[in-house]
Amino acid sequence: MQLQVKTILNAIQPFPGFVYQDIRLSDPVAGQSRELHITVLEHAGRPAHCSHCQRPAPGYDRLPARAWLFVPLWGLVTRFIYAARRVRCPEHGVVIEHVPWSDGKRPVTLAMMVFLSRWARRLSWRETARVFGTSWECVYRSVEWFVDWGLAHRVLTGISAIGVDEIFWGRGHRSEAFLTVIYQIDGHCRRLLWVGRKRTQATLNRGLDALGGEVVGGLKYVCSDLWKPYLKVLARRAGQALHILDRFHITMHLNQAVDEVRRAESTRLKGQPLAQRLKKMRWKLLRKGSTVRGRAKVKLEGLLASKLATGRAWELKEAFQHFWTYRSPAWAGGFLDYWTQRALRSRLEPLKKVARMLRSHEALILNWFKARGEVATGATEGRNNKIRVVTRRAYGFRTYKAMEIALYHNLGKLPEPKFTHEFC
User: Fold this and answer.
1) Tens digits of per-residue pLDDT, 386-422?
2) How many other C-beta atoms can be found within 10 angstroms of the C-beta atom of residue 295?
3) Contact residues for 178 (Cβ-Cβ < 8 A; gap 6+)
4) Are residues 392 and 103 in contact, defined by beta-carbon separation less than 8 angstroms?
């Protein structure tokens, strides 16, 4: 039995009230590839429906035929051709009929928008447009519709732990260059819940408002860094939750302190023989001691033996890593007191600054041990790394709106409309 293209389309992509009339290749045009045109007609026995209320309505007139971009078949650009009717709806007046393969005035079918959106997770938007013979704008509008549909249909239940962080975006000045992001970091689900511009109290308040009072009131764990606006808002809005300070950001502060000591000492010893021990040591000093091998390890051991301030700073940073091996908050608190005393007697101002910061937030830091095993405290930074990957792939992004759409699209784990064409 030989199948016709119309038979296949009716089997996998049927539209109630409409039939496929004719399928043909367009005539070749200089500089353009041939296209597959699928002509659609309304079913003679079914009335048109209002595009607003979806109820049957009498016909009014017919518009000229227009084309909708469909999923490419056999490598050919494929379009639906249909002359839409206008109907006289008792409630909405004269409007265009409901066309099930389209949304509003978009020149792209819903199936094609879903198709492009799924591929846009694997490729850059520019590459997606090039591969499937369309434009960057078409891909952008498809992903925008896809994200809006997902946000409208997602369910915010079962959220017991969130992570709050700021991401450097690089557009604008000062706080404008940052994004505030809220993640769900439960063990069973890790996803982006909300993103907003700036890193202020007002921004975080808007994000918590978007989640809703029921979600915020039901939180058991909240993870953040030491940014004061976040600490204040979370203490006021989610006071019932156990507040955890992110381990990554504490390590980041220690690394910054060691690097500050190295830069100051390099400047002070400039031109002296000891200064050679600090050359090309920046990235070696920022690594965990257990991961340093070969010549780098020999250089670090020599730096420690030299008694330079940079070596003492690195030794203090490495000693703090033992803090995370404790299981009991009481023993961890004892080690924290011991380490901060060492740091405050070290005569290294950057390390003393970190020690004072840790002492002032000791209760929040020790909450990390109470929540260990219950919440993925490292998930926040893992999501941040993925955001940076999205920004590096963001060819053509010039507005915050496009950036926001891309983040929800890649990290939001949004529900998706069901369509036949699920190739990725």
Assistant:
1) 776 776 655 556 688 888 898 899 889 999 988 766 6
2) 9
3) 166, 167, 168, 169, 197, 198, 199
4) no
Q: Is the pLDDT of residue 171 over 80?
A: no
DSSP 50: B
Would you call 269 exposed, middle or buried from its count of C-beta atoms within 10 A (0-12, 13-18, 19+)?
middle
Q: CA–CA separation, 419 vs 136, rounded Å?
A: 22
Structure token digits, residue 326: 């404790």
**What mean pLDDT do residues 378-384 have?**
59
For residues 303 and 22, what is the distance between their CA atoms, to the nearest angstrom? 79
Structure tokens at 265: 């000492």
How far apart, in whole angstroms, are the C-alpha atoms of residue 243 and residue 290?
30
The pLDDT, as a whole number, for residue 384 is 62
Residue 304 one-letter amino acid? L
Domain boundaries, the chain: 1-107, 161-246+377-392, 247-371
Superfamily of domain covering 161-246+377-392: Ribonuclease H-like superfamily/Ribonuclease H (3.30.420.10)
Query: How far is 231 from 208, CA to CA, in rounded Å?
Result: 13
Phi, psi of 132 (to 5 degrees): -105, 20
For the stretch 242-290, pLDDT in tens is: 998 878 888 889 999 999 999 999 888 888 887 777 888 888 888 887 7
Q: What is the pLDDT of residue 377?
A: 57
d(C-alpha 286, C-alpha 317), whole Å: 9
Q: Which of 75-89, 299-313, 368-382 has the highest mean pLDDT?
A: 75-89
Helix axes 247-268, 349-360, angle to 10 degrees: 160
**Is residue 82 a contact partner of residue 99, using CB atoms and an 8 Å limit?**
yes
Contacts of 238 (CB under 8 A, 6+ apart): 208, 216, 219, 222
- Spatial CA neighbour of 86 closest among 53, 108, 64, 109: 64
The angle formed by the CA atoms of residues 394, 400 and 401, to the nearest 5 degrees, is 95
CA 218, CA 340: separation in Å to the nearest integer? Answer: 35
Phi, psi of 326, rounded to the nearest 5 degrees: -75, 155
Residue 147, class by beta-carbon neighbours within 10 Å (0-12 exposed, 13-18 middle, 19+ buried)?
buried
